[in-house]
Write a structure and sequence with these properties.
This protein has about 280 residues and is mainly α. Among the domains are: about 80 residues, Serine Threonine Protein Phosphatase 5, Tetratricopeptide repeat (Alpha Horseshoe); about 100 residues, no CATH class. It has 13 helices and no strands. The chain is elongated. The two termini are about 35 Å apart. Keywords: Cell outer membrane, Lipoprotein, Membrane, Palmitate, Signal. One of its GO terms (cellular component) is Bam protein complex. It is a lipid-anchor. It is found in: Cell outer membrane.
Length: about 280
């Protein structure tokens, strides 16, 4: 992230500042919490930075940044402290708190230079919770929407390119979920349910890395149901777009075992897609 600080003379000065603040609050030789209300906004802010970057204590850092907001609510340091709260919460994997802080920043400073970063942090708070494919995809949809917001609202920002990349990965992730479920149904002979999942990938996620396999699995499922026209058409689409794919080789072999070949036949949803492919309107 872009540095939010003003001039900074290094960790040594920050460490000295922290030590001086603690000693100033000492009584009877026992260390106490620095008397923050006696310190400037910049000093408290730098204590937060020191806690985060040098001591690795994000909880303390958030507390210091929050105190800057509380004690100096209308200062430039309060603005900086608020975006740093969002960043620190995210770094500590407290994603809901990170979103809340980022949203407050956007509410208070919508035209600020760091508004794009606040919006990006909100998107990351969803994106970084996307784990393995088998988990619920609600967060993936939220990540896609939030990433789209960054791309559309701040297209010229330094975060737009990263948002585009992550958007593509999240989109691919959703297709992967459909494929996983489809393969599950296919292995258990629930061909109609499997076809429904693979159809979603072919129709809605055609730009992802899963399309070739989805077409091949459709060939498998349709052949298992005896629907040869649909199987041949799926293989024809696969051959038109992914002829070098091993999935096409497998589909071609499956059809060959029944004396069939890839070609558009019938009038199914796949035939309509095939016509679009030939016209260059799809993929």
């Amino acid at each position: 992230m872009r540095k939010m600080t003003g001039s900074k003379s290094g960790a040594g000065i920050l460490g000295g500042l922290l030590l001086a603040a603690i000693l100033a609050g000492c009584g009877g030789g026992a260390s106490k919490e620095p008397a923050l209300d006696k310190m400037s906004a910049e000093q408290i802010y730098k204590l937060g930075e020191f806690s985060l970057e040098e001591e690795g204590k994000p909880e303390d850092a958030v507390r210091y940044f929050s105190e800057v907001e509380r004690l100096y609510p209308y200062s430039d340091w309060a603005r900086r402290a608020l975006i740093m709260q969002a960043f620190t919460y995210h770094k500590n994997k407290e994603y809901e708190d990170s979103r809340a802080a980022a949203q407050r920043f956007l509410d208070y400073y919508p035209g600020d230079d760091d508004a794009a970063y606040a919006k990006y942090l909100m998107a990351l708070s969803y994106y970084d919770q996307i784990d393995e494919v088998g988990r619920d995809q609600g967060l993936t949809y939220q990540a896609l929407q939030a990433l789209r917001d960054v791309i559309e609202e701040y297209p010229d920002s330094e975060y737009a390119r990263s948002a585009i990349l992550k958007f593509d990965l999240a989109f691919d992730h959703l297709a992967g979920k459909e494929m996983e479920i489809g393969r599950y149904y296919l292995k258990r002979g629930n061909y109609t349910a499997a076809i429904n999942r693979f159809r979603v990938v072919v129709q809605d996620f055609q730009t992802t890395s899963h399309t070739a396999e989805a077409l091949h699995r459709l060939v498998e499922a349709y052949l298992s149901l005896g629907l040869t026209d649909e199987a041949q058409t799926a293989a024809a689409i696969l051959g038109h777009n992914y002829q070098a794919s091993p999935f096409y080789e497998d589909s071609y072999a499956l059809l060959g075992q029944q004396g069939l070949k890839p070609e558009a036949k019938g009038d199914s949803w796949l035939t309509k897609i095939y016509r679009q492919v030939i016209k260059g309107e799809w993929l």
